[in-house]
Amino acid sequence: MTTDTTPQFRPEPEPVAPVQLLDENGVLRDGAKPSMSDGQMLEALRLMVYGRAFDTKSFSLQRQGKLGTFAPLVGQEASIVGSALATDPARDWLVPQYREAPALIRHGHSALRIALYRMGHPEGGRIDPGVRVMQFNISLAAQIPHAVGLGWGMRMQGEDGVAVAYFGEGSSSEGDFHESANLAGVVKAPVVFFLQNNQWAISTPREIQSNATDLAARAPGYGIPGVSVDGNDLLAVYQVTAEAVARARAGEGATLIEAHTFRMWAHTTADDPTRYVNPEVKERWAKRDPVERIQKYLGTRGLWDDERTEALQAEVDAEIEAVFQQASAYPAPDANEIYRHTFADETPAISRQRNWHLGG
Amino acid sequence: MTTDTTPQFRPEPEPVAPVQLLDENGVLRDGAKPSMSDGQMLEALRLMVYGRAFDTKSFSLQRQGKLGTFAPLVGQEASIVGSALATDPARDWLVPQYREAPALIRHGHSALRIALYRMGHPEGGRIDPGVRVMQFNISLAAQIPHAVGLGWGMRMQGEDGVAVAYFGEGSSSEGDFHESANLAGVVKAPVVFFLQNNQWAISTPREIQSNATDLAARAPGYGIPGVSVDGNDLLAVYQVTAEAVARARAGEGATLIEAHTFRMWAHTTADDPTRYVNPEVKERWAKRDPVERIQKYLGTRGLWDDERTEALQAEVDAEIEAVFQQASAYPAPDANEIYRHTFADETPAISRQRNWHLGG
Amino acid sequence: MAVMTMIDAIRQAMLEEMERDERVILMGEDVGHLGGVFRATDGLQQRFTSKRVVDTPLAESVIMGSAYGLAMTGLVPIVEIQFLGFTQNCFHQICQQVARSRFRTRGEHPAQITIRSPFGGNVRTPEFHSDSMEALFAQSTGLKIVMPSTAYDAKGLLLESIRDPDPVIFFEPLRGYRLQSDEVPDGDYTVPFGKLRTIREGDDVTLVTWSASVPVVEAAAEQLAERGISAHVVDLRTLVPLDEEGLIAAVERTGRCVVVHEGPATAGFGAEVIALLQEQAFYSLEAPVRRVTAPDAPYPMPSIEHFYIPDTSLVMRAVDEVLKD
Amino acid sequence: MAVMTMIDAIRQAMLEEMERDERVILMGEDVGHLGGVFRATDGLQQRFTSKRVVDTPLAESVIMGSAYGLAMTGLVPIVEIQFLGFTQNCFHQICQQVARSRFRTRGEHPAQITIRSPFGGNVRTPEFHSDSMEALFAQSTGLKIVMPSTAYDAKGLLLESIRDPDPVIFFEPLRGYRLQSDEVPDGDYTVPFGKLRTIREGDDVTLVTWSASVPVVEAAAEQLAERGISAHVVDLRTLVPLDEEGLIAAVERTGRCVVVHEGPATAGFGAEVIALLQEQAFYSLEAPVRRVTAPDAPYPMPSIEHFYIPDTSLVMRAVDEVLKD
Ligand SMILES: Cc1ncc(C[n+]2csc(CCOP(=O)(O)OP(=O)(O)O)c2C)c(N)n1
Ligand SMILES: Cc1ncc(C[n+]2csc(CCOP(=O)(O)OP(=O)(O)O)c2C)c(N)n1
Ligand SMILES: [Mg+2]
Ligand SMILES: [Mg+2]
Hints:
The complex is a heterotetramer, with two copies of chain A and two copies of chain C.
Chain A: H1 38-63, H2 77-85, E1 93-95, H3 101-106, H4 111-118, H5 143-156, E2 163-168, H6 175-187, E3 191-197, E4 200-201, E5 204-205, H7 206-209, E6 226-230, H8 234-249, E7 255-260, H9 279-286, H10 290-300, H11 306-329, H12 348-359
Parallel strand pairs in A: 1-2, 2-3, 3-7, 6-7
Antiparallel strand pairs in A: 4-5
Helix pairs in contact in A: 1-2, 1-10, 1-11, 2-8, 4-11, 5-6
Chain C: E1 2-5, H1 6-20, E2 24-28, H2 44-52, E3 53-55, H3 60-72, E4 76-80, H4 91-98, H5 101-104, E5 114-119, H6 134-140, E6 144-146, H7 151-163, E7 168-173, H8 174-179, E8 181-184, E9 197-200, E10 205-209, H9 214-226, E11 231-235, E12 238-240, H10 244-254, E13 257-264, H11 269-280, E14 290-294, H12 305-308, H13 312-324
Parallel strand pairs in C: 2-3, 2-4, 4-5, 5-7, 6-7, 10-11, 10-13, 13-14
Antiparallel strand pairs in C: 1-8, 6-12, 9-11
Bound molecules: thiamine diphosphate (2 copies) and magnesium ion (2 copies).
């Protein structure tokens, strides 16, 4: 007991220093011991380039009216791919928001389905059996409780899988985030709450989202550890996520990771960020480009060069071209699709409605 | 930036020492400087005794079937009354959960209405014009956002009023708590989030509610200060609340206060705590009785004695007797009440329904 | 075969199914150590440990949302929401996430979850505890809506619900918990969805109702009989799927109908019953179908709830009108 | 008087009312600096400062709940929920707290709040953006439900909504935002609640609809006219309060009726329209009233939404059936 009435808990005046292993120029920082193997770095780089190329292609198709509105990942590649590489597709579950395409692909979800999803094809919603990913979720933060259930359920059944929930800093203002982190703390659910702080929720800046100096500072309020990391540093993101996954597998429960990054493109193809993003700020972040950074590092290690960059780009573009070819050639859904899959069996009402609609 | 990957934010291993000015024996602790005046202490003591007597009377009426189920405050008197005394009924709003009867009464809400409310009379729901209290709220945590709006709205209009939201530690697991504390931080709303941690949510113990060592530790995650206080120490509760109210009035925004107390009676008259409360634990808390504690202190100061205790009890019992007499004599509501007050004006449907029901 | 109360039948169904199928788990506020605020889960945690009967924090949205995640790992959660009104605190998890999972994933992620929740009036509960929300869930699509009125149906329908591959919301009428008791077989049996129960045969008028209103309508039918009016009474039992054929046949039998339910009239499920009847049985209706429901007002304070909830006299008045029409 | 789009009319209504009444404030996600994801509030923050046009954190429940508190201090909040589907994230705040405040306090704490939200199909939005939830709010009681289909009505009804002493949920059809434009007077005028709009007079069949479905029904009426069928078309405009007299008169005029809406059939508001008609106009109905609505399924992916939403051909088919019956 104390007679001192000054609040025992006070907000930090300054954000803490995020974890960073590679500096903005792709130079390894003193004391940094990256645990990522060269092979993993090359795999990650490919996924990052793939993700950006997938959005570039989607964007042009959208402009031609061949594809619906979608949310690009450009700027967040290291955050999305670095965290995904720390998971094991055979045992872990990925629970995305909507920007995490390469993470899902690496986890076994087919690029074709993502292309179909962006084209608004119902088959884009299908998750193939055995693939441990949840569908993109447009209802913000609603996916976070699902991740808690997934991790908790695996643990109940003696599996050592971990669930990784992705969500934005905007979504972290929703009650579902709070309820989820709190329950995960109570039941020691093996979950990684991966908060991508890309500074924006559509046009709403981080400052309007919360008065907390760090969003990772919320973790102790749930009895779990919180990590602040440079989200544009592939090696750092991988490492803190791998450690969080390891703790979760070992039965030590959940971790909240705040990855500091930036949404370099529009929120979606329906958005015009020039109305609200300060170009100088964007410039500063452009210098921190996650793809160039890892390329530079691999370059200094003799593992990368401009030729390989070109070769990779060409290879990835061709693959993606093929995916969207296949997607456009995919059989168009018919009216009957709206009458399927509401229930395993059909109710009398649905049968009546179908017969009237399609029978006539 | 750091290369150290150990989480920057970790849960405290131990709860912090709560603020306490009066020890369990009613002795002022070294260094304690109570800001409460003697007059305020006596006013508070009366309200505490009143609250307990009001529940005692309600309980016997409930057992006779003359009153519905209700949630008693016994054990939490200091927490409820000490915080209420730190507010100004003329400017501040009180936003209760359901145990805070004496706080509302001190704020100008009539005891008769509370009696009617407990009897299930619709007039028990009425808030008299000019009384700055919200109605009890059975939907847990739903009242917390209202307090943010009240504080924020007064500030927008240049008033210096403060809104105090009461809620239990169980309710603090709801998303509404999170969204509210976070918004209050962003808009610097003059709000005191008064969390009564009475250790139980019906039968659910504090440990199952959250893995946080202190619930006050959540405050920094919203960019606001958090205080842990001995909820059975009237002087300490008053003091930390008064300081929080002062900060809010001065434009410094919200505070989260966690008052550690104990629900000495059943959750409601429908509950049987012997099924889940450990008697020894309850015994330990009985020794910390908030009413006896302040009586002892006032006694040592020559301001209180057994005679006064008896006199006060008799006086308060008589008052409450009269209140419930009046409540039982209150005109019984007729069927027309269900057709009133859904809207200012009546819809055709409601008129039709009323005419059929009452016309027949 | 033993006579038991509805709440005992509900507990027995869960106990037996959890013994039969270890994938079944139970979660909610106060369901474990306490055994539920109404003792519906009494003894289950002691029997199955706190791993399978889980006391959760006070947070409906993550209770429902995590149950969905649990179901994705192959478990079969029974979720208790302590009172039906509080499903509004997780409405998006129920109606957008759980209820649409199969549809959104083209059948790949069905959500086998049973949501149990007490509701219903005339038991003097506090605010938000009594509301009849069946029409909200019926309109939301993707949920099966199960509303038993007897102990026998409660057990048989709950077993059917737990085994149904799709999400089910199982309404438990507070008033019936202990007042309603009847013969309940031990052991396994199910009551199929989409088959109404004919409570009493009659030729003058058809009374359609479900769940909490059943006893009120039965009492009305008794009194009508004494007055020489023979009422045909049916209990719909499940609203989704709805026994359209059975309902139409029951009404065609008399050509006159009164629908009774506890929820407000406007856009209540009674409106759906009437819409269906006039679409499908238009030419056999000899008089307008009447509704006896709560008014378009919020659920009131306990001292006036008996005015709000349909009572026997109002049902009889509506019948008289339907017979006069 | 100028021809303008519905979204411009909505913006103008807010602009003018905020100039007239300084108690009026506007809050929601992205409504301020950006001016709304559809520009419905474009320029309002610049005009009225960020004190009166507030960008909030991403948290619907506290947006709605704090608006209620703001209203208790004498302010008049207009709350934008970015898409109607996300009202499910604050369903308990809307339906239990805001909508019941007057009733719970016996008239002492009315909640003068206007909830604006876009919805409606055939604009290829992502999931949960298009759902038609009017029946859920109609069943919940305590909310007025306003569903304009023209720019003129949008402005006049929004002004009426903001000034109404009770909570109003104001539905904005996405498809109409820019496609629908008509003559809108500058300055102050209101369109009263509970008065339907007769879009076209006719004698063979009455078509009843509202909001997003109005253009579909108008197109159907055109084509029916070419085939010599004269349709009487009404737009209900507000569902609560409902223009019962006007609706009954419109249907009695032809004796035949088709109801069209975008939400699912079961327990949709179409069911209420039919229930009311058969209760109040039973003897003037010459054929069963038919519904043309979405099926009992969740809102689907964009590539098939045009199958899900009622279209002109289905409306005409229903009319043909109603005329044959
Ligand atoms: C519950 C809910 N509310 C509002 C929206 C509308 N909306 C879509 S994206 C978005 C911003 C999300 O920001 P953030 O969570 O930071 O993710 P980001 O887009 O930055 O990756 C909003 C408000 C929604 N989809 N769901
Ligand atoms: C949203 C909601 N969920 C569940 C309940 C049922 N319920 C009533 S009181 C209670 C426990 C509340 O605990 P706490 O918030 O700690 O307050 P206390 O009763 O201890 O004062 C519960 C679960 C409710 N009333 N509202
Ligand atoms: Mg963001
Ligand atoms: Mg408590």
